[in-house]
Each structure stands twice: as structure tokens, then as C-alpha cells.
């Protein structure tokens, strides 16, 4: 494709994106395909001859759009807000257009230095002190793995470093809560802690936040038994209920054992942009690492996850590789992001953030986050006031965990498997309606429904419509 052909097709594509976004509210929210349907709609072999751009565009409408859950829809309340602000979409296109290769500072100085600038901007906006340094990772899962590797190496330290885990006499132990995201146990496993050396510390039964007294007991027991407490992953905004693990107390306990504290604020981290929410993030500045995803609630398109660390020299000592073919052509001190994580090559992801922040501005992003917090409080108030309905966990941010607990045919409140069946029936009915999309998950062994408010397009009227839809679906599902 020549630049001129690209120009013509590119204009058509931009028009297509703008038209698509305008009609998203009229589409069903859930993906409309059965397993295998998308594959079956496509040829089994790659084309030998070029196809017209119009045919490719037509297939976006015919095959791709029905095969996508419309996370930009005002009725999207599933999993977590997965906003893809159009300003950041432009940055993503620009990133592809520049076609930079980020393997060293030398290969694309601008790629490195724009990333330094935007991660510094966000560090300051989040209220982290200047010694923190950030890099963009693909996801919070990778960020957690990188943090755990750094923690592992700090705990196994010195001469044993090159011998790896095999050379340690005392097993290293990681701690998190049963409410932590599944990426945390996965990272612990990948970082070599092993399932036997990951402790799931009890949570408070009402707030679902980690109990620091239980953490203290677990760490003391391990230390007394000759194991080394190495890392605690605190969830600040758990996936299930947005519970906030008490970071100040966790840091205090961890410090007694020299353990690393990683804060996983993948979804909730966007709220650090709001000064009035700073109390929820107290103590984070004293942790060792922090991950949060602008690609969730804040709205920079995937994949834009931030990993901040306090001691970047340590991270670099763990991750650094200098093969001869990456010889530096300058002696100046430059950041080599290849030494801040796992991959060598990186995309120019910083452009997505740069465009997003510059074109939308922080104040508009803050206003949207505040709107979502207000909408969540409004919905929680409605649910609490409605007989037969419950809000199951504190509404810390924009997620409201709810259940309809009607009276059963025997005149007793529905519970057990019958209650689970009822919950899944009404949530499926809402999702099948195409007008909204909700997520179900288990809390204390029973199904509940998470209303995760925060799609860029969701206004109060949409939340009001959702509440009416939900009540209707629950009433029709019967007891
Ligand atoms: N941590 C928390 C608290 C999450 O809610 C999620 C995703 O829902 C993740 C980690 C994983 O995020 P990612 O998809 O960026 O790996």
C-alpha cells in the first residue's frame, strides 16, 4: 500500500470509526455470535491477491461488530469499564503510523522520552512522590508478575541471586487476599513461589478488605518456621467488590519482615486522579510498586497499564540484559525501558496516553469519573430502598454489588441454590435483552451481580433505565 492509497483508505476508515461509534448505542450490548461463527464467516486461507478496501470495511460490519461485546455502549456495566476514548484511538493510529521500534533508547528516543513524560504527568496527578518511576506495560497481570520478580530477587538477594530459587534454603512466601484478582496467584506461580508458598490472608467479612492482623500472624508464623516473607500484593479496588486493602497497615507489617508491597489498583487507580478520593489510596506512596490501568475506567485504549516502582535501580538490576547487538551509541545516562520489564521490543504506547491527556484534558476526565461515582451512589441508594433487594458490599467507587432476594413459594426468603438460579436467570435476561450488559460473580459462595458503572457514554438516564430493566427482569424471573 502506498502512502496515497493509505490516505484514501485511511479517510474511509476514520469515517467508519466515527459512524460506528455514533451507532453503538443502537447495537445490542452483548456479542451476538455463537462459538465458531466468526471463524466460519471467514475464508480458511489467506488471499493471494489484494482485495478491495471496501470489502474489508464491509466485513468489519458483517463479521467483526456482531462478534464484539460493545464496551463503549451506554448500557455496558460488565466486568469493568473498558473505555476507548476517541482521543486515545487517534494516538493509537499515530503510533502505528510512526512505525517506531522501541528496543533501546537509541532505536526511538522519542518513544522513550514521551513515555517518561506521560508517566511522570500521571505520577504527579496521582499524588505519588517524585522518586517513583513509571513504565507502560501491556496489562496489570504483567505488571504484577514484574513486581513479584523484583520482590523475589530482593528477598533472595546477593550471592544467591544467580543460583535462582533452587539455591535458597528458606522458601520465599507471597501474601494476598482471597479477593485479589486471579492474575495475582498466577503471577506468584510464574514467579516461582509455588502454590504452597502463596498465603491467602483473611479479609474483613463486611468490607472484604485484607485483615492486617491476620497478615501479621501469617508472616510471623512463616518467619518462625524458617520461611521468608517476601511480598504482599494489596488489592486497592478488588475485582469483585472494589474492596480497599488497608495499605498503611499492610506496609507497616511488611516492613517488619523486609517484604515488598505491590499495590494492584488496576481498575480503581483512575480514582487517584480525584483529590477527594486520596483517602482511599493512603499509604500507597510508601509501597514498593503500584499498577493501575488507564485502559480501564480512565479510558485510554487498551493496552495501557502503568507500573510504578520506588526503586527503579533494583528493577533494572533484575531485568537488565546487554547483548552486544544492542550496543549503546551514547554514554549519556538514558532510560532503557527494555530493562524495566519482560519484553525487549515495545510499541509507542505512550502516544495513546499523550493524545488522550492532551485532547481531552485532565479536568474533563475527572468530571467523568465524578459523574460515575455519583451514578453509583444513586443506584446503591435505589437498591437499598427497594424491598427484597440488597447492596452486598460497601460502594467505595463505581461498582455496586447487588442481589434480589425475594420470598420463595414457601413464604420463606429464597436462599441456597434456588437463590443462585434466580440471580442467574434475571442477569441472563438483562443481558439477552441487548439493552444492558451486567456481570455475575460469586461472593461468599453465592452468585451476585456486579453493576460496574463507568462506560464513557453512560449518563444518569442510562443508569435509571438499567434499574428499571433490572427490576423488571427480576420480577419476571419469579422466585
Ligand atoms: N487486578 C484487578 C484488581 C483487576 O480488576 C483486573 C482486571 O479486571 C486485573 C488485575 C487484571 O487486569 P489486566 O487485564 O490488565 O491484566
Automatic annotation (TrEMBL):
<dbReference type="InterPro" id="IPR015422">
    <property type="entry name" value="PyrdxlP-dep_Trfase_small"/>
</dbReference>
<keyword id="KW-0663">Pyridoxal phosphate</keyword>
<dbReference type="InterPro" id="IPR002129">
    <property type="entry name" value="PyrdxlP-dep_de-COase"/>
</dbReference>
<dbReference type="InterPro" id="IPR010977">
    <property type="entry name" value="Aromatic_deC"/>
</dbReference>
<keyword id="KW-0456">Lyase</keyword>
<dbReference type="InterPro" id="IPR015424">
    <property type="entry name" value="PyrdxlP-dep_Trfase"/>
</dbReference>
<keyword id="KW-0032">Aminotransferase</keyword>
<keyword id="KW-0808">Transferase</keyword>
<dbReference type="GO" id="GO:0008483">
    <property type="term" value="F:transaminase activity"/>
</dbReference>
<dbReference type="Pfam" id="PF00282">
    <property type="entry name" value="Pyridoxal_deC"/>
</dbReference>
<keyword id="KW-0210">Decarboxylase</keyword>
<comment type="similarity">
    <text>Belongs to the group II decarboxylase family.</text>
</comment>
<dbReference type="InterPro" id="IPR015421">
    <property type="entry name" value="PyrdxlP-dep_Trfase_major"/>
</dbReference>
<protein>
    <submittedName>
        <fullName>DegT/DnrJ/EryC1/StrS family aminotransferase</fullName>
    </submittedName>
</protein>
Amino acid at each position: 500500500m502506498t502512502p496515497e492509497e493509505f490516505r484514501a483508505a485511511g479517510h474511509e476508515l476514520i469515517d467508519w470509526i466515527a459512524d460506528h461509534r455514533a451507532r453503538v448505542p443502537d447495537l445490542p450490548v452483548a456479542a451476538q455470535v455463537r462459538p465458531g461463527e466468526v471463524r466460519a464467516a471467514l475464508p480458511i486461507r489467506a488471499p493471494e491477491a489484494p482485495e478491495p478496501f471496501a470489502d474489508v470495511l464491509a466485513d468489519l460490519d458483517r463479521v467483526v461488530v456482531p462478534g464484539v461485546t460493545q464496551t463503549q455502549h451506554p448500557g455496558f456495566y460488565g466486568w469493568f469499564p473498558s473505555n476507548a476514548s476517541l482521543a486515545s484511538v487517534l494516538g493509537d493510529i499515530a503510533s502505528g503510523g510512526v512505525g517506531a521500534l522501541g528496543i533501546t533508547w537509541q532505536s526511538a528516543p522519542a518513544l522513550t522520552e514521551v513515555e517518561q513524560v506521560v508517566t511522570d504527568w500521571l505520577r504527579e496527578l496521582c499524588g505519588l512522590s517524585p522518586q517513583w518511576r513509571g513504565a507502560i506495560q501491556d496489562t496489570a497481570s504483567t505488571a504484577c508478575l514484574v513486581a513479584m520478580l523484583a520482590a523475589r530477587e530482593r528477598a533472595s538477594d546477593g550471592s544467591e541471586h544467580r543460583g535462582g530459587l533452587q539455591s535458597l534454603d528458606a522458601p520465599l512466601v507471597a501474601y494476598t487476599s482471597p479477593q485479589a484478582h486471579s492474575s495475582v496467584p498466577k503471577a506468584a506461580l510464574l514467579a516461582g513461589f509455588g502454590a504452597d508458598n502463596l498465603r491467602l490472608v483473611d479479609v474483613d467479612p463486611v468490607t472484604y478488605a485484607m485483615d492486617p492482623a491476620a497478615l501479621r500472624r501469617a508472616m510471623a508464623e512463616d518467619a518462625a518456621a524458617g520461611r521468608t516473607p517476601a511480598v504482599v500484593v494489596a488489592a486497592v479496588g478488588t475485582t469483585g467488590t472494589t474492596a480497599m486493602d488497608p495499605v498503611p497497615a499492610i506496609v507497616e507489617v511488611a516492613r517488619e519482615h523486609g517484604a515488598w508491597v505491590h499495590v494492584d489498583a488496576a481498575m480503581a487507580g483512575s480514582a487517584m486522579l480525584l483529590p477527594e478520593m486520596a483517602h482511599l489510596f493512603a499509604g500507597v506512596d510508601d509501597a514498593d510498586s503500584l499498577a493501575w490501568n488507564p485502559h480501564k475506567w480512565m479510558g485510554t485504549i487498551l493496552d495501557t497499564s502503568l507500573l510504578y516502582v520506588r526503586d527503579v535501580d533494583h528493577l533494572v538490576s533484575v531485568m537488565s540484559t546487554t547483548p552486544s547487538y544492542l550496543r549503546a551509541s551514547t554514554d549519556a545516562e538514558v532510560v532503557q525501558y527494555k530493562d524495566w520489564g519482560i519484553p525487549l521490543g515495545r510499541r509507542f504506547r505512550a502516544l495513546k496516553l499523550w493524545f488522550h491527556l492532551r485532547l481531552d484534558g485532565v479536568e474533563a476526565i475527572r468530571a467523568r469519573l465524578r459523574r460515575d461515582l455519583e451514578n453509583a451512589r444513586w443506584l446503591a441508594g435505589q437498591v437499598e430502598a427497594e424491598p427484597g433487594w440488597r447492596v452486598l458490599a460497601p460502594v467505595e467507587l463505581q461498582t455496586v454489588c447487588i442481589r434480589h432476594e425475594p420470598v420463595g413459594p414457601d413464604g420463606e426468603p429464597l436462599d441456597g441454590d434456588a437463590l443462585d438460579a434466580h440471580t442467574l436467570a434475571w442477569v441472563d435476561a438483562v443481558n439477552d435483552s441487548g439493552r444492558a450488559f451486567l456481570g455475575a460473580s460469586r461472593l461468599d459462595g453465592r452468585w451476585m451481580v456486579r453493576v460496574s458503572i463507568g462506560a464513557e457514554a453512560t449518563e444518569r438516564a442510562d443508569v435509571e433505565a438499567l434499574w428499571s430493566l433490572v427490576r423488571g427482569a427480576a420480577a419476571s424471573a419469579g422466585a
